[in-house]
Amino acid sequence: MQNRVGIIGAMDVEVKTLKSLLTESSEKVLMGLTFVQGKLDGTDVIIVQSGIGKVNAALCTQLLILEFKVTHIINTGIAGAMAHGLKVLDFVVSTDALYHDMDVTGFGYKVTQIPQMECSDFPADKAMIAAAKEAFDSLKEAQGHSLVAGRIASGDQFVSSKTVKESIRAACDPACVEMEGAAIAHAAYLNKTPFVIIRCMSDMADDSGESTYDFNEETAANLSAALVRSIVGKIQ
Ligand code: SAH
Prior knowledge:
EC number: 3.2.2.9
Strand content: 25-35%
Number of strands: 10
Shape: globular
Pfam families: PNP_UDP_1
Bound molecules: S-adenosyl-L-homocysteine
Low-confidence stretches: none
InterPro entries: MTA_SAH_Nsdase, Nucleoside_phosphorylase_d, Nucleoside_phosphorylase_sf
CATH class: Alpha Beta
Largest sheet: 5 strands, mixed, barrel
Radius of gyration: 17 Å
GO molecular function: adenosylhomocysteine nucleosidase activity; methylthioadenosine nucleosidase activity
CATH superfamily: Nucleoside phosphorylase domain
GO cellular component, one term: cytosol
Helix content: 25-40%
């Protein structure tokens, strides 16, 4: 079967460049979301802006799977750096994704654990992770930046305080923090659809968060999109 890759970004800045590269494109609007179908360097893709936050991301993922029958999902975007040594404009490719704001510890669950569910830490597809690493090694836009393969933690919160950053680190030690990836991973997991999350760091998720973010938003979003572009044709 030929691949049909769904590409999700939360914000326009994360998807507009990829959309502009599509050939044979057409649009369909569902639930207020504009799904743009077309070919990206010869591969069938559907690109969509989900909106910010976990519920927007999960609903969008479910539509991509049910209505557009995607074979793979890539989440592209920006994030706050958490891993030691990771800097602004470095990259993270997900090994797994979870919710840092899931807390039912009052009933004896581990922080981040989803009650009554067999999985709380959704594993990304190994072949897609490998494709990301291979694409990164030959991406000229990424020269001078590093790529870390690691856990991504998502929550409905912009992390811009050292105290919150440290408590998330203590809870689940992620490589980066953002607001959609784990919800996309969750929906993909329930549908048995392979996924990977690619994020380029816009900020350090610390007290300098908003200003660093504003300065780097567009550059980081475009770097992530450039890596996603070169992964799409490498997925087996
Ligand atoms: N600037 C936007 C809001 C952006 S919210 C506005 O004014 O409307 C932050 C977005 O970037 C989310 O989609 C999230 O996934 C990602 N992100 C980047 N850095 C983050 C951080 N430190 N904490 C949480 N999300 C972050």
